[in-house]
Design brief:
The chain is an alpha/beta fold. The protein has 12 helices and 13 strands.
Length: about 350
């Protein structure tokens, strides 16, 4: 790819550093089999992502996350998950507590913005505690999309509000809560999925809103949160910017909008390559998202044949991606000390409107 450098880097007196491959993979089940271990050892992905099929009990997930890191020989390899609360939760009762959807937290702002910020922080802090306990250190949350009436409910109550200001304020508080709990947040879905009238898991959403309106609504939270070091790009077409390609494979959207207008210089993941919004074989999709300017390919379904093809099409992380990932890692600190039970009781009081 033009403009990239995939050679190992060195520092004075240090051994050469070979960057991981610019991909995050899923795995098939609750344990790694020998074929998966060997594949991951050779492919050397940056990290991994877990889904419900991978999560049965806390001890099992701890064993799995340790095995994934052992396979690549990097104890700091990121392990991602989508644990938003509400209907998007990979860790579920009875082994893990349920958390409210973002919209429930947003509703608190109708009578007290300060309490809503507190609830958003508490919710994220508690989610982080739950994730870190099982070896997960990156959460694909918060959702920073701004839904509009008539949009597909794939976002729906996953969003805090239809008000960009509230989305920004509560997403900021959530990010602070994740950081306080030792987990890195991932802003999604840059530059905005809220107007989509289709579910990108099943088909390609097309948004025809003017760029000026998008700037003041859909794009606004992502611009305000551009200092957050990780983000995920939507599989959505914005006809006013690039009428032919979804954002995740559009050099125009990623360069002109995400990097320049929104001033986002964090590590940029594609949304899942397996989603039906994209066309082409898995290897073609991987090349397309990297050539468009995404830093990391996200391939989630755990199918070994597909992962093999994606790995063959995906180079090591380039120097810019390595820089961005290192900057994100620097934001990851040990969790702040806190009484988790007290924090949980406070969140429940806020969500149930029984605050004194």
């Amino acid at each position: 790819m033009s403009g990239t450098n995939h050679h190992p880097t060195t520092t004075e007196g240090a051994a050469p550093f070979s960057p991981p491959r610019a991909v995050v993979f899923g795995c098939a089940g609750t344990v790694l089999d020998d074929k998966e271990k060997r594949f991951f050892e050779i492919a050397q992905p940056l990290g991994f992502i877990l889904f419900r099929r991978n999560c049965e009990t806390p001890e099992q997930v701890r064993t799995l996350t340790a095995a994934l890191r052992d396979a690549v020989g990097r104890p700091d390899a990121p392990i991602l998950i989508d644990q938003e609360g509400g209907r998007v939760a990979r860790l579920r009762p009875p082994h893990w507590p349920a958390h409210p959807p973002a919209r429930r937290i947003g509703a608190i702002a109708a009578y007290d913005m300060a309490l809503a910020r507190e609830a958003a922080w508490l919710n994220a802090r508690l989610l982080a505690d739950m994730l870190l306990d099982v070896g997960v250190n990156v959460n694909c949350a918060p959702v920073c999309d701004v839904p509009v009436p008539g949009a597909h409910d794939v976002i729906g109550d996953r969003a805090f509000s239809s008000d960009p200001f509230l989305v920004t304020e509560l997403a900021r508080a959530s990010c602070q809560g994740f950081f306080a709990g030792g987990v890195l947040p991932v802003l999604k879905h840059i530059p905005g999925h809220g107007r989509g009238c289709a579910d990108s898991h099943c088909e390609l959403p097309v948004i025809s809103t003017s760029q000026e309106e998008l700037k003041t609504t859909d794009f606004a939270p992502f611009h305000a949160l551009s200092d957050i070091p990780l983000g995920m790009v939507a599989h959505v077409v914005y006809t006013a910017i690039d009428p032919k390609r979804p954002a995740s494979v559009s050099p125009i959207v990623i360069s002109d909008v995400v990097r320049n207008q929104l001033e986002f210089d964090g590590l940029l993941f594609s949304d899942d390559l397996s989603m039906e919004a994209l066309s082409g074989t898995p290897d073609v999709r991987a090349r397309d998202v990297l050539e468009a300017g995404c830093d990391i390919v996200l391939h989630c379904n755990g199918r070994l044949e597909e992962m093999t093809a994606v790995a063959a099409a995906t180079p090591p992380m380039n120097l810019e991606a390595v820089r961005r990932w290192r900057r994100a890692q620097a934001r990851q600190t040990p969790p702040e000390v806190g009484d988790i039970q007290v924090l949980r009781e406070r969140l429940e009081a806020l969500v149930n409107n029984v605050v004194e």
